[in-house]
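quick one, two chains, predict together pls
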Amino acid sequence: MTDLSELLIKNGLLFAFSFVGLTMWLCYWVSKRFTNGRIHGSAIAILAGLALAWVGGTLTGGSKGLADIPLFAGIGLMGGAMLRDFAIVATAFGVDFSEIRRAGLSGVVSLFAGVFVSFAVGALVAYGFGYTDPVSMTTIGAGAATYIVGPVTGTALGASSEVIALSVAAGLVKSVLVMIGTPFVARSIGLDNARTAMVFGGLMGTTSGVAGGLAATDPRLVPYGAMTATFYTGLGCLLGPSLIFFAIRAIAG
Amino acid sequence: MIIYGVAILSACLLAGVFVGDLLGNLIGVQANVGGVGFAMLLLIFITDYLRRRKAFCEISQMGIGFWSAMYIPIVVAMAAQQNVVAAVSGGPAAILAGVLTAAVCVALVPVIARVGGRSATAPETRSDTAPAIAPEKAC
């Protein structure tokens, strides 16, 4: 038994491939057998992944979900930033560039709208919970943008570690929610074409959320959403500690 | 050769991330600005150029197609290593901030999708988007 787990740990990436493959097979079977294909197999698989991340996090107390269990360290490599970005870029192979150009303006508008709205809503919620100083409001607003913008902005402004942790949690909630919820709202927001996918990516901004949500909705939309989402975190880090902080300080300070 | 496709894909990502880091440094933020986006554009232009010159054979293209098809399993692995516990235990302030932001942004999608669109035309249909590689059917 120990020999087997040693073997699986030593060949972590291979075990991750087989484990994820088995998970996907199970989830596609559940999708077909119990939902008649109405809930797509990839949506169930992503949900299963999140559930496993919760199990892993609870068992180890770590921050990397299932990947914190030594046996599943390969999952960390397979789903890590390097391979994730590699696969995202690969989906761009064969996309229609004229679509991107035509939706370019709304893509840019969606980026700015997404960043500003996230900061505003996050800062308002922070205010409602008693974080009334501009630094905390901006930091929690930044977290509502993405869980990377949160700590970057908080560190730049000198926010307390409690507030920074809160901002990261807000970003994680948004990311997880986008991953799970996208297939369910896709129809009602018209998320079935390249233009809307680009706007969606720009508004939501969380790369993992957009990547997972669109994959569960319609994999053909992934490259368009990812294209705009990739600019979001940078824009948030740029505007958060500067323009948006000054604005929030002028209003609330 | 299949490695040609994989090599082009890797080079595009490396170049894109490099430009993204450079841009981040230039404007003074501690983040990569659009690296993946630049990589995607680069890949689109390079593969289009090679295909038009008929210098990109079917097998080389499979080197990119494979990774494109691996996208969903990789996203599942990505989901499995999110800090879900922190998200759930972030307390009501974090949860409300995350949920409200996501809800408001989703509601804005159809509004902003109209910006710069051709006025009063039917929305583009799915067939407009050329699939990179046929999405995997549940088989």
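The two ends of chain B are 28 Å apart (CA to CA).
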